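Probable membrane transporter protein structure dump, as promised
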Amino acid sequence: MPGLDDSLLVGLAIAALFAGFIDAVVGGGGLIQIPALFNALPTEIPATLFGTNKFASIFGTANAAWGYARRVRMPWRTTLPAAVAAFACSYVGAMAVAWLPPAMLRPLILLLLIVAAAYTFGHRDFGALHQPQHTGRREFVYALVLGGAIGFYDGFFGPGTGSFLIFLFIRFFGFDFLHASAASKVVNVATNLAALGFFIPHGHLLPLLAVLMAGCNVLGSLLGTHLALRHGSGFVRKAFLCVVGVFILKFAHDTFV
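structure tokens r here:
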């Protein structure tokens, strides 16, 4: 691949593998994959790196969604409306970048991450039991609102989308961590598809690198999904707190340093 030696390719492959693993469990793989791409290809257009990241991620996320769907009773009545709304609103979020710099959101996102981590840590039973709280029209409307809000955020800013989805599915729908993680994968596939609908037609993609990273991302997602299904909600809860903790440190550094 032009501009990349073997050591950089290996590094990107490992980053994609680890990103797929993290994404399959609790989301947040972009925290690994995006910096790896920017470090390896500092002269490349950012939109092309984001498009390559999305292409690699969508295969791992779709594989994780399929893996969960085969073993977990998926809450489709909540998940599908959320996915449709997320797909539509991610376009709106992408357009909003021209109106408001995403960096202005960093302090707010940092605060929300701290609240999510503190709430999860302070409530030992949070996400331990799967007890869906809504049915019928209320479930549908709440799913649209949640999906729309997260879709807008993913299109506008992006980092931590999967982790926010898991927290919101538990907090507002009564899912356990395992079902929330499974549902979040479907919504993430929708937002990634929406983003690729822009990136690919505009040529913002490195095809050969994207295919290589996609394969590694899928391998990582297979391992992450296997561990999450084997060890259940308790394992996903611990992973969630670890990943959100890392996000808090990163956002604090980017905001104040």
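The CA atoms of residues 120 and 126 lie 6 Å apart.
lmk if u need the other ones
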